[in-house]
Task: inverse folding
């Protein structure tokens, strides 16, 4: 299980490969890998967005994501989880979050991955401030999934 | 009693500061922390509270050394 908060841009596909390569004990054991990658759009609620600042509550964010990762492992028969989440200055098309769940079968990895992203979006203490030109505002709610 | 207070995002801008260190004994709940740290500002609609990085309610007790955070609904992912 890994939870990491990143202040710099990352390539989710490279991170996924790197993490899986670092876990030789998973080899031959997993038949399913479910992933979710959240990426910054250049629009939201009908408005253009040119940049975003993602603020968080560092210690609580780490703790909360570790808690929900452990909860996922208790609820589903999964082998491992990976969460990487950005904070700081983000540009359109930048990945914001990578979630990955490994399990023997997809019936476990799919719902566990969904659980992780829904918990993250509704409970993990992150806040988006969107910018367009000289205008900026705090996002007040996440869009419906 | 010593309490560390933190405000985040839009709520930090509304209150006008990122946090406070309280050193008074007249505190028993998170609501007391809010009132003292904000000079009796009205609680913000939909405001969330965390005590020692666990979600809590305003009427929950606090103790010496606690960290109490106030913030708006979250929007990560």
Result:
């Amino acid at each position: 299980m890994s939870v990491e908060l990143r202040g710099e841009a990352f390539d989710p596909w490279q991170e996924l490969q790197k993490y899986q390569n670092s876990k030789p004990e998973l080899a031959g054991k997993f038949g399913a890998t479910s992933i979710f990658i959240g990426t910054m759009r250049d629009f939201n609620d009908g408005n253009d967005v040119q940049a975003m600042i993602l603020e968080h509550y560092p210690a609580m964010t780490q703790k909360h994501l570790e808690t929900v990762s452990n909860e996922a492992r208790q609820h589903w028969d999964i082998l491992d989880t990976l969460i990487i989440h950005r904070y700081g200055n983000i540009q359109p098309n930048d990945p914001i979050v990578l979630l990955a769940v490994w399990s023997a079968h997809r019936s476990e990895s799919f719902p566990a991955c969904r659980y992780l992203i829904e918990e993250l979006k509704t409970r993990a203490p992150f806040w988006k401030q969107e910018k367009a030109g000289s205008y900026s505002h705090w996002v007040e709610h996440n869009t419906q999934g | 009693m010593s309490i560390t207070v933190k405000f985040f995002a839009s709520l930090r801008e509304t209150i006008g500061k990122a946090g406070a260190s309280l050193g008074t004994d007249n505190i028993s709940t998170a609501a007391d922390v809010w009132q003292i740290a904000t000079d009796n500002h009205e609680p913000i609609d939909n405001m969330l509270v965390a005590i020692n990085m666990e979600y809590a309610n305003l009427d929950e007790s606090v103790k010496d050394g606690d960290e109490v955070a106030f913030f708006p609904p979250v929007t990560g992912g």
Remarks:
- Chain B has a mean pLDDT of 96.
- Chain B touches chain A at residues 6, 8-10, 48, 50, 53, 55, 69, 71-77 (CB under 8 Å).
- The first helix of chain B runs from residue 9 to 15.
- Strands of chain B lie at 3-7, 19-22, 48-51, 54-56, 67-71.
